[in-house]
Design a protein that fits this description.
oxidoreductase activity, acting on a sulfur group of donors, disulfide as acceptor; 2 domains; alpha+beta; 5 helices; 174 residues; signal; Thioredoxin_CS; TxlA/HCF164; four-stranded mixed beta sheet
């Protein structure tokens, strides 16, 4: 009796697993008997994490000491691979544009430097921007200091033209 019960249980378990396994392993119910032609109802839903947009502004005009020149804000961390990747480009931007731009580096390498960066951001009128972007290491953001509008923002992009096009345009408007 026990053997017959176990054999029946094993057969039912095997049938259940073969009916459910395609759903578990392939994420669709189309392979399950009786569900042919049906689609996954979640497949058409948008990814809630995709396409998150950053603000087009840093929160208003920047501090007086930044007025007059486009501001390039570098969110930097010493341990960040993206920061190391764009370092030669950052150096070229500083060399090419010199005193035509204001360069602000907000170092978030550790707690101490993050606290200093937060204080600097507050002093320069970048508090809102810093709060929203402090985890975006390896990013360069070009800001119009008079309006606080973000003119361009790139993350881990070592292509100089991505920045020079925006900077040249911003400088020519001044």
């Amino acid at each position: 009796m026990k053997v017959q019960f176990l054999a029946t249980f094993a057969a039912i378990s095997l049938l259940s697993v073969t009916a459910v396994a395609p759903t578990i392993f392939f994420g669709t119910n189309a392979a399950v008997a009786g569900c042919a032609g049906k689609t996954n109802p979640c497949a058409a839903k948008p990814n809630p994490c995709a396409g998150k947009k950053t603000s087009n502004s840093v929160g208003g005009p920047l501090a007086k000491q930044l007025q007059g020149k486009p501001v390039v804000v570098d969110i930097y961390a010493s341990w960040c691979p993206a920061c190391k990747n764009i370092a030669p480009t950052v150096s070229k931007i500083k060399q090419q544009y010199g005193n035509k731009i204001t360069f602000v580096t907000l170092d978030v390498s550790d707690k101490s430097s993050s606290a200093k960066a937060e204080a600097t951001a507050k002093k320069l009128g970048l508090s809102k921007f810093f709060a929203a972007n402090k985890t975006q290491t390896g990013s360069l953001t070009i800001v119009d200091p008079a309006t606080g509008n973000i003119l361009g923002q790139e993350r881990n992009n070592a292509e100089l033209t991505a920045y020079s096009t925006v900077l040249d345009s911003a400088i020519s408007k001044k």
